[in-house]
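Summary for the steering committee. The consortium agreed at its last meeting that each partner would contribute one worked example illustrating the joint modelling workflow. Our contribution is presented below. We chose a case with several input lines so that the handling of multiple components could be demonstrated. No manual editing was applied between input and output; the record is shown as generated.
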Amino acid sequence: QQQVKQSPQSLIVQKGGISIINCAYENTAFDYFPWYQQFPGKGPALLIAIRPDVSEKKEGRFTISFNKSAKQFSLHIMDSQPGDSATYFCAARKGRGNAGNMLTFGGGTRLMVKP
Amino acid sequence: GAVVSQHPSRVICKSGTSVKIECRSLDFQATTMFWYRQFPKQSLMLMATSNEGSKATYEQGVEKDKFLINHASLTLSTLTVTSAHPEDSSFYICSASGTPDNSPLHFGNGTRLTVT
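What follows is the complete predicted structure of the assembly.
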């Protein structure tokens, strides 16, 4: 059972455009929703994260929108740049405690920003 | 920020040999470390969770005798792929968390294992 569904699988955006990646989750016990950026041959790097008591969080060009009732959250990359081309993963964490730090990942979105 | 160091970044070995991958937390004590496997163009698949000083918890379908995990200290966890076969070739990534609550997981840079 896929607990976190991510779409689209791939995305092509022109430089300066807005990249939007969506995720939906099923388990209401999830309490922390990070986004990771991964470049080829590298580990995922934490980009931005949100908790369900907040509807939006912005850090620079990256914004997370969170809809608790719909169990959906999305990543918006404003003014997308070629250097943003990477694979993006949404994730969700359930509960507290060390075991609760285990993340459930979405399937990933390969973003290509064309110059 | 928190740094997780993984070594080696790449390793090529022959079938039947064993390979050890190290995961270190450099500026914090990691009570829990996680080991993931990632196939090309796919998401991360959790293999096991290790807590310092105790046996690792393996996900369903992961052979614990094949993938030996040791978390002997608060800064080091190791994954040993025993009797490696070509189908074990993959990208292995560790992550670590320093506190039980509210801490984001930090990932190592991964190890590309190729078994010939």
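Chain A touches chain B through 25 residues (CB under 8 Å). DSSP finds no helices and eleven strands in chain A.
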